[in-house]
Each structure stands twice: as C-alpha cells, then as structure tokens.
Amino acid sequence: MKKQKFSDYYLGFDIGTNSVGWCVTDLDYNVLRFNKKDMWGSRLFDEAKTAAERRVQRNSRRRLKRRKWRLNLLEEIFSNEILKIDNNFFRRLKESSLWLEDKSSREKFALFNDESYKDYDFYKQYPTIFHLRDELVKNPEKKDIRLIYLALHSIFKSRGHFLFEGQNLKEIKNFETLYNNLITFLEDNGINKSIDKDNIEKLEKIICDSGKGLKDKEKEFKEIFNSDKQLVAIFKLSVGSSVSLNDLFDTDEYKKGEVEKEKISFREQIYEDDKPIYYSILGEKIELLDIAKSFYDFMVLNNILSDSNYISEAKVKLYEEHKKDLKNLKYIIRKYNKENYDKLFKDKNENNYPAYIGLNKEKGKKEVVEKSKLKIDDLIKVIKGYLPKSERIEEKDKAIFNEILNKIELKTILPKQRISDNGTLPYQIHEAELEKILENQSKYYDFLNYEENGVSTKDKLLKTFKFRIPYYVGPLNSYHKDKGGNSWIVRKEEGKILPWNFEQKVDIEKSAEEFIKRMTNKCTYLNGEDVIPKDSFLYSEYIILNELNKIQVNDEFLNEENKRKVIDELFKENKKVSEKKFKEYLLVNQIANGTIELKGVKDSFNSNYISYIRFKDIFGEKLNLDIYKEISEKSILWKCLYGDDKKIFEKKIKNEYGDILTKDEIKKINTFKFNNWGRLSEKLLTGIEFINLETGECYSSVMEALRRTNFNLMELLSSKFTLQENIDNENKEISEFSYRDLVEESYVSPSLKRAILQTLKIYEEIRKITGRAPKKVFIEMARGGDESMKNKKIPARQEQLKKLYDSCGNDIANFSIDIKEMKSSLSLYDNNSLRQKKLYLYYLQFGKCMYTGREIDLDRLLQNNDTYDIDHIYPRSKVIKDDSFDNLVLVLKNENAEKSNEYPVKKEIQEKMKSFWRFLKEKNFISDEKYKRLTGKDDFELRGFMARQLVNVRQTTKEVGKILQQIEPEIKIVYSKAEIASSFREMFDFIKIRELNDTHHAKDAYLNIVAGNVYNTKFTEKPYRYLQEIKENYDVKKIYSYDIKNAWDKENSLEIVKKNMEKNTVNITRFIKEEKGQLFDLNPIKKGETSNEIISIKPKLYNGKEEKLNEKYGYYKSLNPAYFLYVEHKEKNKRIKSFERVNLVDVNNIKDEKSLIKYLIENKKLVEPRVIKKVYKRQVILINDYPYSIVALDSNKLMDFENLKPLFLENKYEKILKNVIKFLEDNQGKSEENYKFIYLKKKDRYEKNETLESVKDRYNLEFNEMYGKFLEKLDSKDYKNYINNKKYQDLLDVKEKFIKLNLFDKAFTLRSFLDLFNRKTMADFSKVGLTKYLGKIQKISSNVLSKNELHLLEESVTGLFVKKIKL
After folding, report:
1. What is the pTM of this model?
2. Which residues contact 1018 (CB under 8 A, 6 or more apart)?
3. Is 924 left (phi over 0), alpha (psi -120 to 50) or beta?
4. Which residues touch 480 (CB under 8 Å, ≥6 apart)?
5. 360-387 pLDDT, tens per residue?
6. Closest CA to 840 of 714, 926, 750
7. Where does 834-907 show beta strands of DSSP type E?
8. How far is residue 202's CA from residue 220's CA, in Å, rounded to a whole number?
9. pLDDT by residue (tens digit) across 773-819?
10. Rounded CA gap, 686 and 700, in Å?
C-alpha cells in the first residue's frame, strides 16, 4: 500500500491537568485525514497526584522499620546475659500476640514464667512500665536483667522528638532562649513591639502555672502587654487557647470561608498533622506558629515533669493521683447517687468512665471498649451531671467533694499517663533516665562495661538510643545506587553500619553534597543550572531591583544612582521598608519634593535585605571586604544545604574559614535559619550578555541591566532584548536527554508533568505518521496544577466591601457620600448577588458614574434597561479580551458612547474625576493598575499592554516548548493565549459546553492554531516593535475582517473553520495502565468474617494452618485491582468465559503465563483456564458494538461500567443546554421571584426589550424542548444498543410531570439527564418521581455478559491506530 505523503502542516495543543487536546491542519486550516480518520483528538487521563500521600505512608514504614532495628540491637546486646537465666524469655515476648494453642512453648505468660515470679506478680509490683523505670532510676540495688531490658525497651521504643538535637536538658528548660526566638522573628518581619525584658520571669510563671485556667492566663497577658491584640494572641496560643490567624498576624485576610482553617489551637488539634494546611495559607510566616508551639511544648514539659526530676517519677505520681481521684469519685457517687453508679463506672457503650480509659471490667475480665475514647472535656460534662448538689454533702465529705470540684474546674481530674502531649517530650527527657539506669546497673553487670574498639556496651546503648540517620545521608543500602535507585550514600569504608561506627563508615559531608545535587531545583530559564538560595545577597538584590524598577515617584522612575542609594541606605538598614519610611527617605534626601505620589507599592515593599542586615550585625564594617561577603554567601548556601543540622554546618565553616572567623562569630552564624531556594541560577543573573534591540545598548548581565535601567526581568525577556534568544542558544547546547528526563527536570507540578508526557507522546506519533516536523506548533496550557492556588478561596464580596467601607475614615466627606446609606443598601445583597459585575462595581464606586461622578439609580441599574453601561478602560478593540476588574468601570451609557473606542480617557474627564479616583486607589477600592489606566496620558501604555498580552507566557507553558525544541531544535513554537481562542469563539458563536462531551479539548486545540496563527502573523514575532511602529488605528475586533497574508483569507477561512467546528469526528482516547499503589484499605479489621475478598493477618511467628486466620487475628478488606482478565474455563463439563480480577496484592506472585494459570486455578478456583485477554480499567470494550469501560469487578463477578459514547447535539440545543447549566449555577438556593435570567439582545434599537414574563415563558419552552430532545436521542439508532436505552419508556411516562416542574427543578433534571449520556451513566430523576440513581450500570454478571458480542479496542495515543479484538 502506498504511504500517504504530507506537505507542511500546523500542530495545535490544548494542555490541561487531565486532558490534552490536539489537532493537525494544513496551512488553510483544514483538519487533515489519516487512516480514514480526521487528525484531531482529546487524550484523557486522571490528574497525577503529588507524592505527599505516599510519602506519609513511606515515612511511617521507615520510622517503624528503624524502631525495629533499634530494638533488635537492644535485644542482641542483652541476649547472652538473659539467656543465662531464662532461655525462653525472648520467644515468649515474640509469641505474646498468638493464641495459646499457636504458641510453640505453650507457656501461658508473656513475660515471666519462673516458679516464684509470674506476670501477675510483675504487674502487681509494677502496675505500669513507668513504675518499673522509676524504681530502676531511684534504687541503685541490683535488679533482674530482664527488668532492666524491659525498662530500656520502653525507653528505646518511644524516645521523644529530636527538635532540640544536640542541646542538653538544661538548655531545653531555658525559657529565655524561646523568648529571644520570638523577639528575633518579630524584628525580622518588621513587627515593631516594645517588649520589656523584665517580663520574662512573669511570663514563664504564667505559662507554667497549671493551677490557672486559660481565661485567667489571658487576663494576665493583657495586663503585661497593655492589651496589645497580637502579643496577647501569640501567648494565648502558647498556652493552648484557640486563636484566630487574623489576631495572630494582626490582619483580616484569613476569614472563615476564605481559608481552609482560620483558627488554631495546639490543645484541640495535632499541629504536625495540620501543618501542611497552615503552610499553604501562611507560607514562610508559619515560623510564628512554630515558635508558639515551642512555648506550648515548654509548658507541657513543665506540667508533665512538675516538681519531678524524671519523667517516670512524674508519671507514677499521675497514676497515684488518678487512683485517688477515682476512689473519691466512686465514694461520692456510691453514697449520694447510687442508682447511677453503674451508668458512670460499668455500663458498656456509654459516655462514661470505661469509655474514657478505653477499658471495661466484666466478671473480673478486662475488655477493650470498641468506641473511640472519650475526651476529658466530655467526661467532665458527664461527671457534672451525676454529682449531687453541694447542699446534700455531709460535713465530713465536703473536703473530698470540693477537691473533686476544684479538679474539674482545672480539668486535672483523673489524669492519664498516656496522652497526646507525650509527643511533645524531647528525647533528652528519656535519655536522662537511660543514663541513670545504666549507671546504677553497670556496677553489677560486667557486660555493660565491656569495651570493643574503644566503645563500651553502655556507650553503644546510649549511641543507639540517640542515633538518627540524617535525612541527607538517606537509605544506607547502596546496592541500587549505580542502577538508578534511590540511594546516594558515600562510604568511607565497607562493612555493617551501626550507630556506634556510623561516622567511621559513612562520609557524612560528601553524602550531604550528593543529596543536595539530587534535590536542588533547576533554573527556571537555563536547563541544568542549579538555583541559588532565596536569601543570598545576589538573589535578594535581584528581588529588590525587580520591584524597585517599577516604582514611580510622582509619575517618574528612579534613576540608577538613586536606586543604589535607596538599597544602601534604606534596604541595608531596615528589615522591612514601609511606604511611609520610603516617602520620608525620598524627602530627607531631596529625591522628591512636596507631595509624593507613589505607584507600584502598597503599604510596604515585598522585598527585603534581611540576610545582609543579619551578617552586618555580626561583622560590622568588615562586611565591605570581599572575603566576608564570600563567607556570608557561602554560609547562606550551606544553611540551605544542611538544613537544621548545626553540627555539620559548624564542621564545614570551621574547615573553610576557621582561621578567619572567631568562635563567637561561628556560633552566631550557626543560629541563623536560611532554608528557601530561589528560582533562578547565578549564571542567569550574572553570566549572560545581551543587547537592547531598540537602542543598541549592551548589558554584561541581567543584574547590570536591572541596576542601569527601569525594566524588570519579564521585560528584559521580551522581544525588545536578545536575552531570551541567548538563553535559547545556551539551552540548545545541552546534551541529548530522553524526553522523560527532560520532563522530570522541568519546573512544573506533578499534575502537569503527566500532561506534558502525554503531549510529547502525541507529538512523537504525529511526527512518525507525517514523516516531518510541523511548520508551527501552537501551545496553550491550562492554569492547573498550582498547589498554592488550590487552597485559596475567592474572597466573599460582601465582607470585602464592608471591610473597605469601615476603613474609609473622614476623607469620604469630600465626595458627598452617605456611607451609612451605602452600608445598609449593601446588606440587602448576598455574595451570590454581588457576583453580578454591575452590582459589585456599583458598590466599589460608591454608586457613582466613574466618568461624571453622577449618582447611579440602583433600581434602574438592576432592571434590564439602557441607562448604564460597563465600560472597558482599555477598549475591547485595542486589546485581547480583558474583562478583569482592573479594566472595568460602571458609567452612564451616553458617556460611554462619547468615550467611544478611544484611549486614553478624555482629558476633561480625567481632570474632573482624578481626585475621586485617587481616593478610591488610596482606600483600596481600585488597584494601582486600574488607576494607571484611568489616568494614562497616551496610548503608548496601551500598546505596551497589548504587546505584553501577546508575549507574556506562563513558565509552565514555556516548559513544553523548551522540551519540544530540545527534541526538534528547528521547530517553531507559538504560545497561543486562551483569551485569543476564547474571543474567537465569542465572535463567531462557537459554543463550548464542557459538561456535554470531551470533544471541546480537540476543538480548542484547533482554534489555538487558527487564532494563534492569525495573531502570530499579524503582530509578527516582535509585537513590541510592531505595535510601536504602526501608525494605523488598529482594531483587534476587526482583525478577522481583513486578509492577512499566510494566515487569514476573509472570503474563505471562516467557512473552513465553521465546517470543521461542526464535525463530530474527534478521536477520544484514554490513558490506561496497570493500576499501582495502595493494595487495600489500610485499617485492619478485628477477627471475624470469611470471604475471598480479604487478606488475613498472619502474625510473624505463626506456624499453624493458613485457613480461618482472619477469625483469630483479623484481616484487611477492600482489595484494589491491578487489571482484569477475560478467561475461558470449564464449569459443569462446559467451556464458559468470564471476567476475573487480579488484585494488586497478588501481582508480584505472577511472573509469567505458568504462574498466572496457577494463580487462576488456586485463587480463583477455575478449572482448565485459558487466558483470552488482559483488560485494563477504563479500556474501551464494545458490548454489541456499543462502547463501555470496566470500572469495577467484585468477588461475585459482578461488574460496573462507564459509558464511553460522546453525546452530540445540534447548535440550537447546545445553546439551550448552556442556558440550563448557567441557570442552575446562578439560581442555587434562590426563590422563584429572585431567579436570574439571561435576556435576549435586541437586534436593533426599535425592537422592544424582553420582559420578565416573556423570558420565563421562553425558558420553560426551551427546557421542555430539551427534555424532548434527550428522549429522542435515547431512542435513536445511535443508542439502540446502550443498556440505558431501556429507560426510555420510564422517562417518556414522566414527561408531563417534568413540564409541571418549576424552572430550577427542570434545569436540575435536565443536567441529570445529561449524566445518563456521559461516563457517569447515573442520573437523579427524583424531581419527577423516579429514583436518584436511575441508569447506573452496575452489578452486571460476568457470565451473562460473556453471552453478548464482545470486542476489546487497543488504541494508540492519538486514536489514529485502533485494533479491534474479538473476545
């Protein structure tokens, strides 16, 4: 067969986080054909998840594994000595979880089985492990070696946190250190608080006073800090109160409903679990929460230890206290409320004492309470309900009763030994006990003093207890290192690594450097270049200049000399530079005179030079010397590299600069915390020369250009300069990579990496089919995958406006605004109503026309009338679609007509309104950008904005182009803008309904080619130069009304586009693969249940029969499938076919066909099985020629399916459906009289406006028609073989009911009807009296299914190659 030949072609991509649309056209925009198919498609896949979830599981596994390793070393050390007196001791311990009949020794007791000493003797002597530890600490007499082992086992197992690693107990208990950390944080962040040092002792006393309640403590904090809201909030949080983030940071940006968590309490939540959420809200400001947590931990530590020297002593006291409280409480309840005694102390499943401790006694036997344990606050409420009135208490019982009441008040009644606060104990607390026990017992046991290679057994135990593998050393097994595995350790010598020989065997510094090479991000622009620390002097100066260059002082930029002075005299002297401080500096230094108007800064600068100031505090004037600058830069780098490991940092700095720095200087530098990386490399900032094409000026580097000019980095990367071109040349020189490596190295989120890989696979297949590279590739990428955006919620408009109104002050008097009236009027509208642009603008403008200052009639505005208009400041004819609030104003219609399509705004309007606009800017009702647009003097700024719109491309989009250019260096990439394709759709009425089907991805890719090429050709590759040189009065709205050579033929192009957009030939394919990940539900279920869909738990030392293990030891359920099999096998002397599921848990046992057959025989109980085909989840399977995919198959061989046939509608019905979806969105929760409608536009000025009644009638008519259309589709030949075709009659029968519904319920039912046609297959028809789950294709028998005609489709990534396999 003759191979198809291809001429020049365009390739378009529309890349999202879970889809890639693609399209191939000729140079006239006809979609090309190949293999009897049109060459366009939508590739669908699940959005890739970040590794966070897996990382948590992996960290837990690693932690438990390392704990086990520690305990094994402990056992090895004690083994010989214990076996001398009890050779079954360790076996009993290990078999303690087994039933007696399953134990090899058949010994009933788990710990002690001596003639005169059994387990019950041990528990009588030592009710808790802390009693044993306390005895061994205090009593220097010789003790049974097994008791020593058990005490040490407890210490090794839960050894506390390592946040204060390297510090001794005395330092940890030092309140002043924590206090100084807080002061440093406040100073570094420009939070000026005068805190008296004399208050340290007072504060420590208040924080640690367990006799005071939270309210009393708060009162005392207010007295100390003169009711300073922020300081009081910090210390309230430190003692366990619930505090709002707004109070903590003295702001109002963290509102309920706008952020995921707006409050915090260390007492009520586990901070470590919630820390990622707070980090997504606060970013680096989370340091304040960490400092408050260190105060809280200090308080808890003091309260737990109380007046005890050791933790076990404190815990024994708690035990005795609990015992005494329980005795007193039982005495009072038994005497004064006997009828409820059992309810409080014995009953099952009650909110009572057994539920609090998690144990119940029945017939002398202890039973675990299944219900989750009751919290102390809840128990106190229960106890209060059972306590008698105080007047009933006899005199002799009053002391006991009052003690109970007092403890209830302080919440110290019935204290527990095991509490979540134990996690706040540092390892040094347990280490102190370990040292004391070893000191006491080493007098009697020689093996503890035995030395090997200069290390005694006692030291081995202490080193093992404290040992942690530094994160930068990573996995110790280097076997996979050279095979691309996850290992980077550098060894000094071979041999087994143990805690006491770690430094001898491992080269810690080199391992750390290897780790950093792996972990450091690469430069955003230069491939393969490492980024530099965010706090380095170079990066700090770049950030400052990038911001400073766009600051305007009285409409003028700062010159080079003034910028240098501002940096040297302002930024290098102040940790935070406020707007006020900046203005004062400009006046004092005569850089500006009189009234100063600033543009580009609000409240304060975002950039700072904190790192410089910190080193200046240590080195003083010496910092002007190059060697000290080098030391500072290197210190910042090492701090980023080695994290919080002060030991390795100290070693490194002493090796390099020990002869220059004093001990005190090293110590001070080591207290600094720098751990954030920038996004640019040193080479990008200092190592690339480039030229300004307009002036011919040459710059030796980006930093030189930033210092000499007023451009920022984005402008330097524009087509005015050769910087981007020079960067591209640098990147071309990088050696060949596989494209997977290139994607892995790229600066994008995991969710976009999957999308980019799929894009490259499509490109590769198109390249093979056509045999040549495309003439141009058009790329448009969704904004997805930005984790920081996911947790941000859109501010609630009503609250936002109220806040703005409250901040207006007296200035409002100058503009005759009745603020009270505005506020009361605003309260009538909820946030949903304020989503209307005109209403929101009305309140942002104080109800005034933005061009005349005249009052706007709110009633007339809300009616469908011709009095007012929303105007675009930059006219729609001059820029690509910009509907942001920075470009919108509400005005009188005749003013807008007068303004016409010109820019700038008329001079007389500017002069009249400028003071009002300035007031709005200063009070944050409009942004600096909006003010700049309103007050612009000529259209130079507008043309610059248009050029930026065309040139500025988000970095993630550039990454795709960068990778494609490395694969195909000569390829021409055009970055399409979503706005261009979107305005093209609007202009020519191409409707897009995401909910209808998945073809819109491919059609967007097609429009990216069409609109992208028109703009790319019209405005050339250098839009800055083009837009400044052309004298014509261009109009982007008319761009398609003229011929553009090689891009648009006004006679024919639109017809070609319309013809293609009407096609329903898009190839929709899905990314399918063998499932991986979690094997089953990770929560173990207690003994019971038998089924082949569970995994029985088998204890390690169990040697009995495998069956019915779940009935003894429990099991896991909800097994996840890896893939399915279509199998032929024998049943009752007949050969039948069925689908079988292979679970993830079994995959590793299936190595080849032989093991697969064995698996089917043994696990699935099949007779003479023969595998016909492997089937993946969501792979296309045709049942009687209708496309579905399998989504689930249970143990009874019942299957769930998705529908894969896309629904297509004519243009008329697409419009109605779009209206249905919009109506549903706009009217959620509204009553009928408040429904929001979209009125028809008048064809000419003589046509009457549509009335409310006529719009309602039209909606009703259209919605009824839509229902009829859906019925018609379901009954058509396209859906003849669809399983849900059987529902047609039921849905026809309820049509009359549908017609009688209100509009909202109709819209809801139609949206549900659509679900019947998409993958979901299930629709909610409850509004017309049918089920909520109509149409769900589930629980279909595999055996019944196999009687139908079945085919499996194997598709290439584009869907242009398809193999149909008969099953």
Report:
1. 0.71
2. 1039, 1044, 1047
3. left
4. 486, 487
5. 777 667 777 666 677 888 888 888 888 9
6. 926
7. 868-872, 888-892
8. 9
9. 999 999 988 654 443 334 444 557 787 888 788 777 776 767 778 78
10. 8
